[in-house]
């Protein structure tokens, strides 16, 4: 029995795209947990913040739907982000069922640091791809994500 | 404000590999939750089972280390798989600190069904890739996973 199988042996050996993507996700999540803990946030909060840095005023449901978040998970995460004073919610004046999400002053101030973490993730994952390979690598992962969006 | 941003618009617009991978992971996890619930298991259990179908007798720590699982998460998941009568643990006679993982009869019987789910995931994610593109798509995702293994 090969007890000492390393991640690298396993990755080189497997051709299952879902397993490779899951491994990548888990590794990134694990690696950045400490860094995110400095801001009292976890991985789910990070993804929500990155979405809000792209566009404020989204509703919780729209965000959950377009980014594939689980509804219970996003509700919990937003409560936590409110508690940390990073986001706040405003009831839509035209439809009281809709709560729209905005960044507080503190949330906006965190933007450069949080985006830096995102930037770091992307460059670590794309290490060793040269400028010829990069666009097609992104297009392939995009195509996989578009398939995932059809699920 | 574009409230109705769909996953597809967002995916087509973004070139952040970590965001695309996270979206893919979340979508697959969400999509297969119901199917896995039929076996009283969740996403984490599925990944552990797939690993054991490749190789039984691994230790919990070796599995956590090589597959990037969080140690607390894997410990909990294995307890649950034991409770469901799907796996069992044996103390290594040469090193009593090591518990090795094996599939029960029930666990082995589930193999074709669980692997079918994995097969389905992979083919859904690779829909629309033709046979020319497929090997390079897998190589690119593998290269990304190898980067993640260095984190």
Write the layout of secondary structure elements.
The structure is a homodimer of 151-residue chains.
Chain A: H1 7-13, H2 17-37, H3 43-54, H4 60-67, H5 71-83, E1 87-92, E2 95-103, H6 105-109, H7 111-125, H8 133-149
Antiparallel strand pairs in A: 1-2
Helix pairs in contact in A: 3-7, 4-5
What would your notes on this structure say?
Helices cover 65% and strands 10% of the residues of chain A. Chain A has 151 residues and is mostly helical. The first copy, chain A, has a domain at 28-124: Orthogonal Bundle (Arc Repressor Mutant, subunit A), CATH 1.10.10.10. Chain A has a two-stranded antiparallel ribbon. The first copy, chain A, is globular, with a radius of gyration of 18 Å. The relative contact order of chain A is 0.10. The mean pLDDT of chain A is 92.
The CATH topology assignment of the domain at 28-124 in chain A is Arc Repressor Mutant, subunit A
Helix/strand class of chain A: mainly alpha
Rg of chain A, rounded, reads 18 Å
Overall 3D form of chain A: globular
CATH 4th-level superfamily of the domain at 28-124 in chain A = Winged helix-like DNA-binding domain superfamily/Winged helix DNA-binding domain
Q: With helices defined by DSSP (H or I, 4 residues minimum), what is the helix count of chain A?
A: 8
Report the oligomer.
homodimer
Please state how the strands of the largest beta sheet of chain A are arranged side by side: 1-2
- Total DSSP E strands of chain A: 2
CATH level-1 class of the domain at 28-124 in chain A: Mainly Alpha
- Which CATH architecture of the domain at 28-124 in chain A? Orthogonal Bundle
State the distance separating the first and last CA atoms of chain A. 37 Å
**Beta-strand share of residues of chain A:** 5-15%
Biggest sheet layout of chain A: 2 strands, antiparallel
The topology string of helices and strands of chain A comes to: HHHHHEEHHH
Largest interface: A-B, 66 and 66 residues
Low-confidence stretches of chain A: none
What proportion of the residues of chain A is helical, as a percent range?
55-70%
Average of pLDDT of chain A: 92
